[in-house]
UniProtKB/TrEMBL annotation:
The keyword ATP-binding does not apply. Pfam families: Toluene_X. Its main location: membrane. Residues 1-19 form the signal peptide. It comes from Hymenobacter algoricola. It is found in: Cell outer membrane. It comes from the Bacteria. This is Outer membrane protein transport protein. Keywords: Cell outer membrane, Membrane, Signal, Transmembrane, Transmembrane beta strand. Belongs to the OmpP1/FadL family.
Length: 411
């Protein structure tokens, strides 16, 4: 009984690392092209998400932006003892974004952000050596943020947004005590929560600007999830019920970001971001399986650390019609070595990005972006004394590809 509860707990331990390993990438094609350095970048409606204060500094037109995102991770595993190699099956994670902005008057603007900032889609071979920990797992999220911003003067503005978040998750793993890998447990659930986003934008010189933003944690409350078991031998049917109720709370972290943007020349803009995600406050996680209050309550240790990210990007106006972008990023993982999970092995990431926009008319443009991230190799070891951590001893090698296409329109 303990194994099945801890295996499900492992899923949520992994989900909680969203700021390090489970972001789906910069939330628009333009910001993807500059490596995500967008806290002080006002040339994209994704500012509603990254810094609500920048919304009031946009022009007096109505703006719309929408597009699609694809995130693809490739991971291989080499067992410490078996020396067997397992490759994750390719499972693209699809997402998207929609932004809208409307100026109420010369000082006040309102906007709406709908995007998919967190998620992953992992599928290992059904017979790999870690099948009793995880065979497949998935998380999808949607964040909706109505926003208002006010221009204090020509140089400074501030804004705030209310965040409604919704998430769906699933996981499947094999019951390791049976030789038949078709004896599996499957967990599914969904939840929602509220948060907020605030930001300040300012200009300290004609060509130099800065931004500061804070996104609060959002707790997704899973109240009516289900745990189900398949192909369990009749002798053990009493230990593994067909279905059971699942309840827990899943939190995404708060994040403080600061950024600068400098118009180095009339054609070249350079941006820089620093983000600190507050993971150290998460040291345990409690979840319940069963219909009776307090049934099968378990607490699992986390001991995560705060994680930092650095991003630098540039945009060059090649012509009146074409803008080119490039960026680099370094994203630190909050997960310690002893908590590495095959659900989605996370590590420090070094990324490079490219992007382009084509201005078809003064009001309509098409945007494209691509980012490649190299994830540092991670090696996990099974520690028998740490019973609240389920993992597999071995080495993980991961690469991440993110691509986006979008359209922007103003009138």
């Amino acid at each position: 009984m303990k194994l099945r509860y801890l295996s499900f707990g492992l899923l949520f331990l992994s989900l909680s690392a969203a700021a390090g390993g489970f972001q789906t990438g910069p939330q628009s094609a333009r910001t993807l092209g500059i490596g995500g350095a967008s806290v002080a970048y006002v040339r994209d409606l994704a500012a509603i998400y990254y810094n609500p204060g920048a919304l009031a500094q946009m022009d007096s037109l109505n703006h719309f932006s929408l597009g699609g995102l694809t995130n693809l991770r490739t991971t291989s595993f080499l067992g410490n003892d078996s020396r067997r190699i397992a490759e994750q099956e390719l499972q693209p994670l699809l997402g998207g974004y929609f932004y809208a902005a409307h100026p109420i008057n010369d000082r006040v603007s309102v906007g709406l952000s709908v995007n998919t900032p967190f998620g992953f889609n992992t599928r290992w071979p059904s017979d790999w050596e870690g099948r009793s920990v995880v065979q497949q797992t998935r998380l999808n999220t949607v964040f909706v943020q109505p926003t208002a911003a006010i221009r204090l003067n020509d140089n400074f503005s501030m804004g705030a947004g209310l965040v409604y978040a919704y998430g769906r998750m699933s996981q499947q793993y094999a019951l390791g005590q049976y030789d038949d890998r078709n004896v599996t447990a499957t967990f599914k659930g969904s939840g929602s929560g509220l948060g907020f986003n605030v930001g300040l934008y300012g200009k300290t010189a004609e060509t130099l600007s800065f931004g500061v933003s804070y996104r609060s944690p959002v707790t997704l409350k899973v109240k009516d999830g289900t745990a189900s078991y398949s192909n369990v031998p009749a002798l053990d049917a009493g230990r593994y019920p067909g279905t059971a109720k699942l309840r827990t709370e899943l939190a995404t972290p708060g994040a403080l970001s600061v950024g600068m943007a400098d118009n180095v020349t009339k054609k070249l803009l350079v941006t820089f971001d620093f983000t600190l995600s507050a993971w150290s406050r998460y040291d345990s996680l409690t979840f319940n399986i069963g219909d009776a209050p307090g049934f099968a309550t378990r607490t699992a240790g986390l001991r995560y650390e705060d994680a930092m990210a650095f991003r630098v990007g540039g945009e060059y106006a090649y012509s009146d019609m074409i803008s080119l972008r490039a960026g680099v990023s370094y994203d630190e993982t909050p997960i310690r070595d002893e908590y590495i999970s095959p659900d989605l092995p996370d590590g420090n990431k070094l990324g490079g990005a490219l992007g382009v926009s084509v201005q078809f008319t003064p009001n309509l443009s098409a945007d494209a972006g691509y980012q490649f991230e190299y994830v540092a190799e991670r090696t996990s070891r099974v520690v028998q004394a740490r019973a609240n951590v389920s993992n597999v001893g071995g080495t993980y090698r991961t690469r991440v590809h993110t691509a986006a296409l979008g359209l922007s329109y103003a009138f």
